[in-house]
């Protein structure tokens, strides 16, 4: 059994998690989101400085919560990309320092593999084949998965413009709601009518790519025409996004003969997405796996989980000159 320390710093979250044998032992998280809010988006240099300040306290807290000592750790896993370059470099520098100081192997991890592996901490190993819908501030991807540690991940579709979370954030700004916009729209939508405005559902029945910029423009045009009720716009916008996401995800499972759908990433915390995905997967006979919201958003445990899988699969560690790859391909 290997004990893996995972470090995640690809965006604004400093995440540290300790995983042993597919089980989460302890974790700590520090977010610099409050510092970015007034800029309406994550400022890379501010994020990098915040990672630097939060890293050692987060690592100490994770060890305390796990009830183990650094000498118990067998390996260090760290996000090497994709993400913000300066933010990634902070995590890599810390992970390399720990690997050197403790004389432990280092594993560079792809951020999206981490999002998928997060679910295994709650629901156990993935079946031999599954499809993942990753919906976050930076990504909207449908991925065909087999063995996460051994086989390549197959990209089925991606967003052609805005990521789903980015669309939530931009529409929230149009509606005068706070940043990050996803949780704000989720809340506002509870009092709204999702059928109030028939916003466009781009590329609904064609292929597996996504496009959300037309929807965002449609909301902006609508709001510009004079003060519609915010809850109705929020609910109608949210419905358009989750309708497209769930329809395409279910269709991709059908077309690829896959019976397990994993939904992860920050937007997977959305209440309506969780409800509609459950409804449509049940209708289609698909097993739906969505982890708790704390495992959906960026965290260190998901990176440790991939490290754990890599070690179990006998993968070679990364070299200590491993560099950040801000636009790492899958
Ligand atoms: O995965 P994540 O924490 O970071 C990235 O890797 O991007 O995702 C953050 C994104 C933000 O765009 C945020 O607005 C969105 O996830 N988000 C939500 C909800 N909670 C977070 N979107 C819709 N509904 C939510 N409840
Ligand atoms: Zn992420």
TrEMBL record:
Substrate binds at residues 134-138, 169, 182, 186, 270. Coiled coil: none annotated. It comes from Streptosporangium oxazolinicum. Keywords: Acyltransferase, Cytoplasm, Iron, Metal-binding, Transferase, tRNA processing. It catalyses: L-threonylcarbamoyladenylate + adenosine(37) in tRNA = N(6)-L-threonylcarbamoyladenosine(37) in tRNA + AMP + H(+). PROSITE patterns: GLYCOPROTEASE. Pfam families: TsaD (PF00814). Its cofactor is Fe(2+). Its EC number is 2.3.1.234. This is tRNA N6-adenosine threonylcarbamoyltransferase. Required for the formation of a threonylcarbamoyl group on adenosine at position 37 (t(6)A37) in tRNAs that read codons beginning with adenine. Is involved in the transfer of the threonylcarbamoyl moiety of threonylcarbamoyl-AMP (TC-AMP) to the N6 group of A37, together with TsaE and TsaB. TsaD likely plays a direct catalytic role in this reaction. Belongs to the KAE1 / TsaD family. Its main location: cytoplasm. Fe cation binds at residues 111, 115, 298. Binds 1 Fe(2+) ion per subunit. The gene is tsaD_2. It is found in: Cytoplasm. Residues 25-304 form the Gcp-like domain. It is an enzyme of class 2 (transferase).
